[in-house]
Description:
This protein is α+β, with helices and mostly antiparallel strands. Helices cover 39% and strands 28% of the residues. The protein folds into two domains: 1-54; 58-249, no CATH class. It is built from seven helices and ten strands. The strands form two sheets. Strands 1-2-3-6-10-9-7-8 form an eight-stranded antiparallel β-sheet. A two-stranded antiparallel ribbon has the order 4-5. Mean pLDDT is 81; it is low at 252-258.
Amino acid sequence: MEFVIHLIVSLIPFIIMGLIFTLIMGVIFVFLFFIAKKFVKERNETMEYCRKNGLTFEDTMMTSFPYECKDFKITKKGKERSFYFVVSGKRNNIDFSVMTYKYSDNVPPKESTFLGMKVISRSGSKYRKPDYYATLCVLSADNMKMPHFFIRDESFIMDSLGKMFGGQDINFEEDPDFSKKFVLQGDDEGKIRTFFNSKVRSSFVKFHQKGFVYEAVDKYLFVYNPNSFDKIEKKMQFLADSLKFLPVLMSSENENLN
């Protein structure tokens, strides 16, 4: 009897550890189950919305971004990137795609060949940084012709330090309100200054929403939103917010900003 009692007592730590392990695994399983369920629900709702509204849907982006946009800062975030749940269509002669943008700062896997076999290996670091999720809107119209520019919110501390080390920020002495709000960069400062006339600057001041980042060249405008949306309706609202800039960017000089 004493032996049985002693055996049970000695097993208690292992039993407790087993229960804790089972509980942890159960929590992880439930978490992954709800994540998968949420993912499937978002996909199905997006597909149904596209079907009802005559839009196209892709699980992942099948085509690459236009060649003119290959060096965009917006689409080069992190080291591992993917674009999925892509909704595309046309609105008022403007082609658009709005999608979920996933990226991380982890080192991507490396491919090598060993004895004729492909070997994929990762960095030796055990810690894996979290993934980031955002929303990206890509707009294009034949009657837009823009120089390359990149524009985002200005951070007083970080951008002040950046300017000390030669960071670019195109300012307009005649428009201090715009210059205080935004960092404006691009390949050809002269063309950017000409393009960013008072109408374009006032449009950004009027319609910009905090956190949005814009990058453009030729007929393409990319709009980055740091938030990721589960609901397709919110993605389409982001599209509507992005479209507000288009009239003043059109080469037709359409000034209707309402």
